[in-house]
Amino acid sequence: MADFSNVQMSLQRGAGAIQNNKYISAITNGLMSAMPITIVGALGSLVNSFPVQGYQDFLVNTGLKAITVIPSEITTNLLAIYVVYLIAAKFAESYDIDGTPAGILALMSFLIVTPFNYSEANTLASLPATWMGAPGLFTAFLVALLSAKVYTIFKIKGWVIKMPDGVPPTVSKSFSGLVPGLVLAVLAMVIRYVMTLTAFGDIHSFIFSVVAAPLTKLGGSFTALLVAMFAAQILWLVGVHGAMVVYSVFMPIWTPLGTENLAAYNAGLEIPNIVSGSMFGMVVFMGSGATLGLAMAMLRAKSEQ
């Protein structure tokens, strides 16, 4: 019994460390805050790509196809923009600091390191949509955390422009983000320039090739799903909400996979990933082993006694 208690305490401490980790919590809370965006994108994809030929012909013939595609294009395919803001804001809020400036500065940094498409007149022509969606999520995670960390350090250390007491709070808050904003802008430009000297060309390609692709390949396997489910059950045995702990760890990996599935469905392509956050939700969040069905069956169960 003493041995089990020791194991229980060790697992509880480990789970607590994960749940209390500000970086993991910021990513998890940021992605959860983006849930309305992903749901709207999913519903938009369903409306736009409902697999009935007569329905699709109706959309095309009436010109509605160009309208029904908009929700998924500005949600699923631009998810990295929403996420980079939300994660940075949540990270700053974990230090009891206003998250809005942190989110804005993180978004600025993300756009600076993103390779724009320029016209012949050397003016901005367009943003690369490729890195605004699922492929750019891992870069969004890292940029958001780095930007928010720099911002919180400046705020905690007091390295900000302080206005006189008579200045309205809104104006004072605006100036408080100026110094960290300048530092982040310079840092992002340095990263942008350094990456142009490499074979990758930009930070997005580097992170996607070196970090995102291996992690999603590993975390998107059935083995990883089984490990996650098994770990969730073990944590439940020691009194820890296993599903939430496991999901907070795997969510940064599974979210890009689910976003990629939505984009493929909306484009009429084959769904590339079987394992994603949605699959984990179906087999775990409904009750381990999908016991929701068992609970419903028990409502009608009768004893012969």
From TrEMBL:
Keywords: Cell membrane, Membrane, Sugar transport, Transferase, Transmembrane, Transmembrane helix, Transport
GO BP terms, alphabetized: carbohydrate derivative transport; phosphoenolpyruvate-dependent sugar phosphotransferase system
Domain of life of the organism encoding this protein: Bacteria
Record bears the keyword Glycosyltransferase: no
Subcellular location field: Cell membrane
InterPro entries: PTS_EIIC, PTS_EIIC_3, PTS_Sugar-EIIC/EIIB
Membrane topology: Multi-pass membrane protein
Protein name (record): Phosphotransferase system eiic
Species for this entry: Trichococcus shcherbakoviae
